[in-house]
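User: Quick sanity check before I run a bigger batch. Here is a single chain. Can you write out its predicted 3D structure?
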Amino acid sequence: DIQVLKKDEDRSFPFAPGANTSIAIVAVDTSAASADDTKMFESISVDMSSYCQNTSNANSISKEQCATSILDQFSHDGFALVRGTGISQQTCVNALQATHTFLQEAPEAVRRSCLTKDRARRGYSPQNAENFASLIGAKGPNDLVRKYRVGPENVSGDNFALTQANKWPSNKDWGEQGAVFQSAIQKYYDEICRVAHCIVEAICDSLKDTTLSSMDAFSSGSNALSHTSILTLLGYRKGARHQGKHAKPLVAAHTDVGVITVLLYDSGDSAILQRAKGDRWVNVKLPRSVPLDPYFVVNIGDCLSDISKGRLPSTIHRVMPQSGPFLSPRSCLALFVGFKSDE
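Assistant: Done. Predicted structure follows.
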């Protein structure tokens, strides 16, 4: 769950930090990825094709190499950069463009037509309406980012919160753009859920734990009822927190609650993802555009960390404003992966 908080409201969360948890990290490594360097990103990313694509090369040896590589990245960085997922560049670009159009260009009335009573799971959530610092039991500024969420729908008509109906903008509210938006986001959602299944499978294989490996977290294919994963669209833009020498986070330091999180960013430069590394913050290097074989950032959530008995610790991360006079809005697609509703 994500807590939706009012100003000055006390914050609490079941995943409270342990006695040794601290987010008082002040030093920042500001090194960022230079212009697209294909060789560099290929060398630091994990090729998931042996799990994600039906190819003749998908043998047990290539799968073992993939599983070992992704475990090494998680153990070293807490994050992994993956490619070879089979998701097309066009599917990613269309979804990112749809996200930008909805969260940055559409009239606020269109976005507010997608408000729900449960905006932590479905529909539109305005700026300053949520607080991710609560996910580690901390206090911090509310999230300065617009969000929109979709997830699997239960066609049987029950009232389970994690499979409730999605709230799409209607043609009445947004004309034909509403249908274009829904088509692009739904296609990406179906594809990234398939990829998430493959990544979880690789993680299970890497741990060589029969209990973990036997978890049928997702069915093969895109059966909407096989998981409870939520896709969150995030829209960042230049604002008050970009000013001054001591900029406040756009999204406070936190860990994610679910199994894994799979992230895709566009080329906007108004926000940057950072991970905690010892006593400092490190920028997560990302390509400046979506290549033919798209790259995705993956991080471990609290759920998988608990199931793996801490072998894969969830990593504290945050989103910070970039500095500069001409900053473009940044869009992100974040899939928060969840198990089936009966697990």
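The longest strand covers residues 230-236.

User: Great, the batch can go ahead then.
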